[in-house]
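Running low. Got one?
___
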Amino acid sequence: MMDRFRMIFQYFQSNSESVMNGICGLLALASVKMYTCFDFSCPCLPRYNMAYGLGIMFVPPVALFLCGLILNRQSLVMLEEWRRPQGCRKKDLAVIRYMCSSIMQRAMVAPLVWIVVTLLDGKCLICAFSGSVDPEKFVGFANASAVQVQQLLAKVPCKDDELMRNNTSRKAVSRYLRCWSQALGWSILLILIIAAFLAHWLRPCFNQAALLQARHWSNYIDIEQKIFEETCCEHSRLFAHKCILHFFESMRQEIKLHSFSLGREGEGAEGEEDLLRGITDQDQVNKLLKAWYYEKPALDVSQALKGHYHASAQSKDQRVDDSGAHIFLQNPNPKVSAPGRT
């Protein structure tokens, strides 16, 4: 069971797109749940209805959009890639545009769901635009003055109000605005579905090589940042371990006076020596981190491979020389055969 959970965790850790798709889905469901649990109460005042209705319709989507940007790890990676110095690695604007497009698409899911749900429900639009309806279209406002008409129209969303309880035109105005709201909501939903359909089926018509390159290098930037952070954490742990051991070594005499026993564990660990080789103080660590930010290494490992092959060839030659020397030591005169042999 633990192995299965570990595999699932490693999959989500290595696949940022799957994680972000899941987060976007959860935000969309949360937006629907929040709206259904929200107690919508229109003020039914001529000066405040529109501000309240449009505020409920558009302020929560802005908050959901910002939450989508905050929860998306790639948004910070994209900003760092855009703002970093040139260094030894050039910046590819196509990759940055791809990352920005992917981030925006995921962040817009929850806000669009909120807007579509509010329009299909109709309460926000009825509250916001009840005072903008033409009263001449409804017979219930024919005998009222202009001020009374504005007050009556502002109270259309409040069906429990005493002035609108017996008014025959309230339901007509409410039904009229709800129809417009639902028509607008279904239109937006249809436009989004058509846009998604065209983006899915017309994508093969564009340059697939450029799209694959942009997607590959955007994933690379994200994974590289993760590996660098993991390596820094591992180095920090080992560096702290070395510093603590050095502290206890320097306090050995005082510890002996207090009759404490001090072990020497972990001083010869090969992994620690490999990571800490050449990095022995705080200034060197700061210089390393500064060099990583200002001079990102070029995406070319050919020199490293050449060095690896050269080192392998040298070790192979060394093994050959060592074996030859060993044979020579056993039989320094190859022309003289061993006793008992012809």
Remarks:
- The chain is about 75% helix and 0% strand.
- Confidence is low (pLDDT under 50) at residues 262-268, 323-342.
- The longest helix spans residues 208-250.
